[in-house]
Write a structure and sequence with these properties.
This protein is an all-alpha fold. It has helices at about 1-20, 20-30, 50-60, 65-70, 75-85.
Length: about 90
């Protein structure tokens, strides 16, 4: 597991490179400077952790697996919101 953690920044960088356009659109529409954010929705997208959650959604290819890993670490609605805007629907 420590080796995985050490290599994770590279995994995250590759994810951002691969999905740069999609991420830019997502953050433009739902990110911290968006009109949506002013209404308190998609709150996770205002935090850097959102990139990790999005990367994990792509990597595990199962929103249910991610929900098990999530295990209440952050508010469930955050996972639901980011899953929905990424196109995998509600999880919890």
């Amino acid at each position: 597991m420590p080796a995985e953690r050490a290599g994770y920044p590279g995994v995250l960088e590759e994810f951002v490179r691969e999905y740069r356009e999609r991420l830019a659109g997502l953050f433009a529409e739902y990110g911290p400077q968006s009109a949506t954010a002013q209404h308190g929705r998609r709150e996770l997208l205002a935090h850097p952790e959102s990139l990790i959650v999005l990367e994990r959604l792509v990597a595990v290819r199962s929103r249910y697996t991610l929900a098990v890993w999530w295990n209440g670490e952050l508010p469930d609605r955050w996972l639901n919101d980011v899953s929905a805007v990424w196109g995998v629907g509600n999880v919890l």
